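User: Structure please.
Assistant: Input sequence and predicted structure:
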Amino acid sequence: MIGRVEDQVDFGGDSLAAELVPADGLADCAATALQADGGRILSYGTGAGYTPLRELIAERYEVHPYRVLVTNGWLQGFSLLTQNRVRGQNVICEYPTYDKALQAIFQGNANLLYLDLGPGGFNSDQVEFFVRTSQKPALCYTIPTFHNPTGQSLSLDQRYHLGSWVHNRAKTLLVEDDTYGSLRFEGEPLPTMFELSEREIVYSTSLSTIIAPGLRVGVFILPDVLAGELATLANSTYISPVLLAQATVFEFLQRGRLEPQVEMLRERLAERRDATIAALEKHFEGATWTRPEGGFFIMLTLPPGTNAKLVVDAADGVTARAGEDFGGIPNAIRLNFAGPAALEEIEPGIERLRAAWDPTADPYETGQAFMGFNP
């Protein structure tokens, strides 16, 4: 019998557990924002976002505020970008990649050029092949740091190589998704591709992901012309962003609360990653997994031939995402270790997931063999 929703151990979502969200502090920030600027933030505003927040972000990233677009969540901004730029053209992205980004790209009827991610990142020859042989790609989407779904990070050489071929040579719009980049709890920090390009490419991140997912605050730093085009498109799409959420985040940043929040997340997420890996070592003999140095995600890979989606669907009392949801890798499962309600839930959740997989059985007899697309 499937357990009640409240009894589920949640490795399946994209967001933080409630215990990691600073709800009380945000409530006070919202009250202050309403008292200080309620007339403006409860009315319509510019599609580019709450001006004080845009100015603060611009200062942080050393760009002009005009280049900053603050959207109703990261996905809203990326969807505006694909509507503006894709339209049936070539798009380079990693394989696998964030499923919501893939959906936005597919809506533009794109022809996808996949960079296959292995344990060491992508094969640099693929980048050169795409640039030399394909019609100029309209866009390249990459998550170079703590990738979703694999948890991997591109090396400095790979960042230079991708930027050199895609941005410098092909003159393709390069979009960096740095949603999880600040959440490093191990290893040496690497420069963003935005920094390596001297702030020329598109940089994007999500403040709501690391503060409170329900706030829906995405950030895009864009070239001047594109910034104006997307602000206009935003106005015509949703009239006005949610200024109350953006003003609340502005107050949170103004008070210096972001840095303590990130430090707390680094400490707590490191504990959660370690607990997840310890549980995998205990319960998933015969499988492999990534060991991210930050972010939210671990990719668990079952033996070839296993249909991970059927394993996930059969798991009682735990949620997770199958690799095929992210464009491929049918024998893989993405685990969000930031999602379970408490650290103590992680090992029981992994044990429940393991109970749904019998590594000694013939996958063709059990129906857990990957036979192609599944309904």
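The chain has 14 helices and 14 strands.
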